[in-house]
Design brief:
308 residues; mainly alpha; 15 helices
Length: 308
């Protein structure tokens, strides 16, 4: 009940309030969602990634093992999604939209506070979650954008140029390099980085609210619920199986499984909005998975005690 209440009070209710504000602002002022989307892609998200990587404490051993886990987990979920997509007979933009709603998950503003609650501020488990967050920031800005444009048969050279303009693919190596070389950042420069990174969560949630406010709300219940089940229930099961396969035990195993249990990422909505690819489905998948995660994440936390 403690975890249930915490997730409800510290994750779901604040997120819902911000989303509701976005809906109200759209209804009142018809905000331009494309502008909000570009701010997230080109400013707020890169600043958040840079700050978290620059300030983190990552060892090479933990980095290597966590990256291997992530690669195996991503490959397993990708294969599973290919089977689901073929069985369901999805066509066009719905293929990457459904896939993105499952393989991209909220590893930053949802998973990091959750990690620190469950593991009581443990720096080791935080470093694991930051590595997952790094990969979950990189993939939507590379593969996620490529997949959406490929489904529309857009010019691949133009798609590649678009990907290469995204700051986050440069921010990650720059942050690691500056951290490794102990390059200090002057206070007048670091202050704006803090301001911008702190604005990411609010802006991303407002963007989701604006998208929800502009929708006709033709609710595709079957597809949205399928996405939720795959993300919230199947995801942590696959994570557990990979942990067992790799022979990882103890608190690291628990942290990795927990990282797989969080709801669909806001990045799936941002991609859908930016490239006009099933934005209604993507928005509904993010919103509903966040609500349902109150129950599923609490259950995963309870079951984690059986992971030795």
């Amino acid at each position: 009940m403690t975890y249930f209440s915490h997730i409800l009070l510290n994750n779901v209710i604040p997120l819902t309030i911000m989303i509701a504000i976005g809906v109200i602002l759209y209804r009142a002022f018809k905000l331009d969602i494309k502008t909000l989307s570009k701010l997230n892609f080109y400013l707020f998200s890169p600043a958040l990634v840079f700050k978290m990587l620059y300030e983190s404490s990552l060892s090479l051993a933990v980095l290597g093992q966590t990256l291997l886990f992530f690669v195996l987990f991503f490959a397993a979920m990708f294969l599973l999604m290919e089977i689901v997509i073929r069985l369901r007979g999805y066509q066009g933009g719905m293929i990457p939209a459904m896939r993105n709603s499952v393989i991209f998950y909220n590893s930053a503003n949802y998973a990091i506070p959750l990690n620190q609650l469950v593991f009581v501020g443990d720096a080791f488990t935080l470093s694991i979650q930051i590595i997952i967050m790094m990969m979950q920031s990189l993939l939507p800005n590379t593969y996620g954008i490529y997949a959406v444009n490929a489904s529309k048969r857009n010019d691949m050279k133009q798609t590649l140029r678009t990907i290469l303009t995204l700051p986050v693919i440069y921010i990650i190596p720059i942050a690691f390099l500056m951290k490794g070389l102990h390059v200090p950042i002057p206070g007048p420069v670091y202050a704006p980085i803090n301001y911008v990174s702190d604005a990411f969560i609010a802006t991303a949630l407002l963007t989701l609210g604006v998208q929800l406010g502009s929708m006709k709300w033709t609710f595709n219940l079957t597809d949205v619920l399928l996405s939720n089940v795959l993300r919230l229930c199947v995801g942590p099961v696959v994570g557990f199986l990979i942990v067992m396969l790799m022979g990882i035990e103890g608190v690291m195993a628990q942290a990795l499984v927990l990282s797989c249990a969080v709801p669909t990422s806001l990045s799936s909505v941002l991609i859908a909005v930016e490239y006009d690819n099933e934005p209604e489905f993507s928005s509904q998948a993010v919103f509903s998975s966040t609500i349902f995660s109150i129950v599923t994440v609490t259950l995963v936390i309870y079951l984690m005690k059986f992971i030795g």
